[in-house]
Amino acid sequence: MNGIQVRSIRLIIVFLFCFQCRHLIAQTSSGINYAEKVNTLIGSKGKGHGIQERYLEAGYTFPGAMYPFGMVQFTPTFFTEHKGFVVNQLSGAGCEHLGNFPMLPLPGELKASPDSMEHLDPRYQVNKAIAGYYKVKVKEKIDCELTVTKRTGMARISCLPSEKKITVIIGSGINSTKITDAQIRITGPGKCEGYANTGSFCGSPSSLKVYFVAEFDARPTASGTWKGKAFEPSSKSAAGENSGAYFTFDISSGKPVGYKFGISYVSLENAKQNLATENPGWSFDKVKQETAAAWNKYLGKIEVSSGNTEQLTQFYTHLYHSFGHPNVFNDVNGEYTGADHKVHKAERGDYYTSFSNWDTYRTQGQLISILAPKEMSEMVSSQLVFAEQSGGGFARWIMGDTETGIMQGDPTSILVANAYAFGATDFDSKKALEIMRRGAEVPGTKSQNILTRPFLEQYLGKGYMHASMMLEYTSADFAIGRFALEAFKDSTLWRRYLKRAQAWKNLYNPSSGWLQSRNNDGSWKKYDEDWREASYKNYFWMVPYNLDGLITVSGGKAKAEQRLDEFFSQLNASYNQEWFAAGNEPDFQVPWVYNWISVPYKTQETVRRILNEQYSNRDNGLPGNDDLGAMGAWYVFADIGLYPMVPGVGGFSVNSPIFSTINIHLGTGQTLAIRGGDADKKYITSLKLNGRPLDGTWIPWSSIRNGGELAFTLSAVPDKNWGTQAAPPSYDNED
């Protein structure tokens, strides 16, 4: 055999190896393609009838392509899906937002201005919607496939053989709210670039701009722009509201048209660099497979086994939602726009945005800390930097470079304490405590123009204020004290903040038996005043760090059990209805309160009721807004039988898992095996940790952070004695 033949054989072997790698790259080491198990349509519709009720029991999720914690979301939006496929969107956020640079392919040539893109009626028919990939038919004639990298998006557009031309429109002066500043410029055959401001969120305006650069792999036969109703063939630029550019292509050869874009929140040059770095070629399949591999890395952190494909799909979809946000905000060169609206460079790791902390401190922050502590530590560090750049206080709800001020309380202090408690500790804890204390002790502390703690002076001086806001403050105070103890062994500060956290007792009205707001003079307000997005019955249980104290002062365990039973008579309360609201955060933790009153079997049956009655593998299969992964993480914890109940305390309240085999690959590098779950049996009769029997419903994180095995035995019949011998933790002044 001569040298040429040897080299040829080697080349063939290398080619075959690389070809095989293309098909394996999307799979995990276990050989399972978890990305395929995700149904991104779940939560993308609501149970309301018509546009005026679309918010009812709606997930507000989107079905398109995103990357784990990625900058780009290439998708139709929940709010204006008919406008096309946008470059940015938040999963489960409850107000119109973002939705910049919508792209939509249309059959034939463009004859008139698309104007606001409101009337185009794309008539989507979804073919596939999985993690990192979305395929949809537009107007019965055009197949559009979408995928992404971390900072770029890519589409492959093909048509029926009968179609000879298509036009792709790109809206620059269009998003899901109102644009005041936008520009697009055609820079060459099949190329364009531009910018647009990001609009507003829940009434909070943003001056942030998103920069955009895009190109096609085919030469257009025509191009132009529009603004409003003015249609301008051959024009090279357009600016302002309801403007955009279009490109028409001859597709008679049958070859698909490729489209790709990059974005940046810093500059056009950075958008170009992001695109050139992350997606320099035109292989749609390669990008799709690499994105699937990225998703499998994260989704494979929890491996579950079940013969029920519906349950598997729901589990991995909710885990997928848990890894969608927060989002990387820095470009490939490290630059990002900071809270002072100036350009900065990420100093260590990535800089993140999209923090819905009032929602996510309850579930998602703990889940990311357990599974991806490096990323969570960078997310915490990002919020410390944001606080320093924005005036010294923690923000509550960050979108882009803006503290929107949405919701209430001091949730970021809790989120940071939770991250530390569950193993994400690689951040400046000294700086974190300084920012926490400033917001909790210094009235007037702000992030941008938003107070970190409104009414703080009254809270400190009188010990009472608006009830639902104050209950958030007391939880934050408890978490701050706990963080001081865990991170610095500061028992003095711990005791001081623990005492402050007991101010919830000032809201207890012995005449009514409920927590209530007080007027400035100390008199009681009406029982149903000052409850944010819920009723007094939902908020009553928001003392998760001292449930024993709450239960005792309000009449004891029997009274608490009666109240809980009545509360769970229905599961889908709206804001003012006085029963459990599976679709909103204030009462997320309440099903586990039964564990504190010696009837844990009722926690087990209640959690199963919620999973079975309020969630499904359908587009309207969520009971409420996903809220950037908060609801997704709730579902994951409920499925595996462990719920993070107490702010700032590493540990879990137990319920029965639904999967027979669960392997959780922890961020510590160890694996926690959970065995014995059963979707048809909900009652725990025994539980062992590494072979040692447990007869309590609380498992400290320290006992499982290095892995091990939790072995459940379940039954279809309740065991009313199991789990009642060892009390779960409660913290009062003397603790």
TrEMBL record:
It holds the Pfam family Glyco_hydro_92. One of its GO terms (cellular component) is cytosol. Residues 270-715 form the Glycosyl hydrolase family domain. Its cofactor is Ca(2+). GO terms for molecular function: carbohydrate binding; peptide-N4-(N-acetyl-beta-glucosaminyl)asparagine amidase activity. InterPro entries: 6-hairpin_glycosidase_sf, GH-type_carb-bd, GH92_a_mannosidase_put, GH92_N, Glyco_hydro_92, PNGase. NCBIfam families: aman2_put (TIGR01180). This is Glycoside hydrolase family 92 protein. It comes from Chitinophaga silvisoli.
